[in-house]
Design brief:
mainly alpha; single chain; 134 residues
């Protein structure tokens, strides 16, 4: 009788065999986190890559922290601190990077060098004297 493998077993095999695939997997997890703020989803992706790359003990040893500390980071409901995430990613052979948004109406494209209209109280500009919105 043929033994069937679980999806998790197949995923671990693929992430362990191909570093580029593992980095792409993390990239997708990070993009999803940026879209909807789902920290547990991102941490699960990070945990899967760590497991495929030798496990918590191996990666913790490589980055110079206690395995329990790494386990705590991965099981937390909070996003890891940037310096902690950077250390973990470096141990996995990758890094964070900044890229422009694909949305052309992003705040990064706006010109903030134009001085705003002067007003005694900028909060009052949106209403008329009667209090109705303009």
């Amino acid at each position: 009788m043929r033994k069937y493998r679980t999806w998790h077993e197949i995923l671990m095999e693929r992430l362990a065999a191909d570093k580029k695939r593992a980095i792409g997997y993390l990239d997708v997890a990070l993009e999803e986190y940026q879209e909807d703020g789902d920290t547990p989803f991102f941490l699960l992706g990070l945990q899967n890559v760590i497991e495929a790359r030798g496990g918590v003990s191996e990666v913790a040893k490589k980055i110079g922290i206690a395995p329990q500390v790494l386990s705590d980071v991965l099981s937390s409901e909070k996003a890891p601190r940037l310096d902690t995430l950077n250390t973990i990613l470096r141990g996995l052979g990758c890094r964070l990077s900044i890229q422009p948004l694909k949305d052309t109406d992003s705040t990064a494209d706006k010109d903030y060098s134009v001085a705003p209209r002067e007003s005694a109280d900028p909060h009052l500009e949106a209403t008329t004297e009667s209090g109705d919105l303009r």
